[in-house]
Amino acid sequence: MYEQALSEMRNSLKNTDLIIVIDTQGTVMYYNDFNDIYNEAGNQDNIGKSIFQLYPWLTKENSTIFKVIESGEPLVNQFQAIKTTDNKPVSAINSVFPLISGNKLLGAIEISSNIDGSKQPNKNKRNYAIFNAKYDFDNIITESTSMKELILRMKNMAKSNSSVLIYGETGTGKEIAAHAIHNASRRWDKPFVTQNCAAIPSTIIESILFGSVKGSFTGAEDKAGLFETANGGTIYLDEINSMPLEMQSKLLRTLEDRKIRRVGDNKDLDVDIRIIASTNEKPQDLLSQNKFRPDLFYRLSVVTVELPPLRERPEDIDPLCQYFIQYYNNLFHKQVQGITPELKSLLTRYQWPGNVRELKNCIESAYNFADQDWLDIPHMPPYILQALRDNGQTTLHDEKGLSHLLEEYEAALIGRALHANKYNIIKTAKELKLPRQTLYYKLKKYGLMKGEI
């Protein structure tokens, strides 16, 4: 066993962020934080301190190094949720080995790799990413008073173990809210497991959620389900409205009894989990359409969170655009400064059926055409213009008026298509999905006939 442990120890050293040695009382004998991720003090300053002084959130129960101190046996590639020097939750893979002289246990050495910030992806990151909640409340970008009040409410209810039901249209940030609730809870250092219920075929959803025993069905193996995997932590069930009614009744039993049973097994397993569920349809509509069991709804909705759509918080469009611009500047290696006042005016009038996710995609689309310091109306996807026209939003709200802005936008789009098609009218009309006569009319209207450019 120890020969294998030595081999594993050598492998662990290849992607190491932290090495720490403690004695049996928890006193630090050696400390090396290679990237200053885990503790802001110098490496030498930490020697002689209690490990609990370095990490106030650590306990003997959740510490991998103390498990080895108590058992005297090595642990290899064990997941542990930790907090960084700026109190951000991250995930680590720890390998811990006992230090023995003769028959006496002297302490343990822990080799830790931060799987959220590793420079190179590795097999540990793939295996354990499911257990880590990536977002906290700081990741919610908002200037909206209603959203700030909602965040405060979510922070308060995160401290309990009550089930949570999140409702919001597609793209409003339901998953980010679920991550943040977990990371603000007392379960932050335990597993966070997510599953989109719409992504599981109805034939295998029970074994995915509750696990299976070998031989229970064709191809079945002894395998823990997601509830068992999340034991001690949180399970997030997205699009729970897609879960079959029969499975909803089994979920209800888990909520009531805190027990699960693997498919094909004859015994129950106790689980300690918090359930967060979400739906992109109004719960009352789901109840009236018999898509949601009323008893399950009342069990899940002990705490409810309704995320407002983006159209109800237009003050968030500008800060969200700035956030996405910073993100795509890094991705596209550009130096875009922001959005023009004209584009901001247009974006605040659009209804955003896809909400924040749609806005992010629009900014990404704009980066494919932007060749200047500011994103402008012509950089937006054409359907934005069409939607505004269809809604008849031509009321004057600023100096130019929306009608004039839309005409500028349309002219720029036609000009771009003309140039891309080398002024071939047939190809341009086909790309813009316009009859040729309509295109000729617009070319003349905007002064885009070849002799006029």
From TrEMBL:
GO BP, one annotated term: regulation of DNA-templated transcription
InterPro entries cross-referenced by the UniProt entry: AAA+_ATPase, AAA_lid_NorR, Homeodomain-like_sf, HTH_Fis, P-loop_NTPase, Sigma_54_int, Sigma_54_int_dom_ATP-bd_2, Sigma_54_int_dom_CS
Entry superkingdom: Bacteria
The entry's keywords: ATP-binding, DNA-binding, Nucleotide-binding, Transcription, Transcription regulation
Molecular functions per Gene Ontology: ATP binding; sequence-specific DNA binding
Alphabetized PANTHER family for the sequence: TRANSCRIPTIONAL ACTIVATOR ROCR, TRANSCRIPTIONAL REGULATORY PROTEIN
Protein name: AAA domain-containing protein
Lineage of origin: Bacteria, Bacillati, Bacillota, Clostridia, Peptostreptococcales
